[in-house]
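Lab channel / #folding
Pinned by the channel admin:
"Please post every new chain as: sequence first, then the structure tokens as a reply. Keep commentary short and put observations after the output so the thread stays searchable."

First post following the new format, from NK:
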Amino acid sequence: MKKFCLFGVLATGLLLLGACTHKPTLTVVFENIPDQIVYMNYAQIPNLSEISHDTLRAEDGKLVWNHEITQPTEIRMALEQYGDYPVSFWICPGERAALEVKWEDEDLHYNLSGSAQLAAQARMYTVARDAYREMQNLRAQIGKAMERGVEYADEQFVDSLSALYRLAQAAFSDVYMEYVKTYPDDARSAIYLMRHPVKDTFLAYYETLSRNVREGVMKENLDDARQKAERMLELDANALLARKGEVAPDFEMTDLEGKTFRLSDFKDKYVVLDFWGTWCPWCVKGLPRMKAYHKKYSGKVEFIGISNRDKTEKLKDFLQKENILWRNAQNAEEENPDVVLMYGVSGYPTKILLAPGLVVKGRYLGEVEEFYNELDAIR
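Reply from TO:
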């Protein structure tokens, strides 16, 4: 049997619309599609990881699917001969859905009716499809550019593809936010909002959700997503406070050798703050050049690595293996403060060059030539 994974990583524990025991009927009519095996994969809130499967056969261009649904349920229907084109939608207790599916222009098209919300989902699919396919295409291009390993990848090319991917992702998200705006009292709005958690967009649309949705069983998940979105906005604000020409905020940390230090200990020197992680391919790719510049400016420039989201032992082993000799500390580990938040770091690697007096001389996202040129300009 073919299996098709449901989306829903972020949707665990979503809101109930009410405990009903109706048996909504899904009636499907096919056009320009021969009778064949149809795979129904479905999962209901709150257990979206528990996917059930039904296998049906269409007869005379039709099929009827009956299943007791007491929670909002995500359905993915795939046809045996069109497995790359699954039809996906949500159905809620008490709804009876009518689905029309046709093959046209080398693609599956469908209309969904039975309620205004069901019909709106089909319209969303039509509008979002092109953006979604563009995302898939760009993801494949990025994968191909990286297939030989990050050390061989053209960073500028990958960054340009990533920028295009973010634009397509935003267009895809906008389609679902229109649903949220139109149906603020529908559980599906909470689901779509959780699956497209753009920071300022999330916060704006979160406030439009009805109280029933925000205070339902999904409350914990929505509150967590809201806190993450608020953190992202705080990162943006702090990045402005730590921009070029500003005095960098002081902090005290304990490095991986157990030595406590303050940034202000080095106020009379140039300082490089390197925000990175062993999980970041561009961070690792840049290490050989960082090592060369650390050696070149030893005694004149203080290098401080601040790793984020690394496990202590793995980080120590990595530093030893790579012979990293400059000071390294872990962000927000043990008694260490959240310097990532303090400096508004939202991408990796981020390097911040401080002049004597802890004045920000430059802020650099990614492995960029400008950073090394600035170091070479130090007199």
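NK: Confidence is low (pLDDT under 50) at residues 1-24.
TO: also worth noting, The two ends are 69 Å apart (CA to CA).
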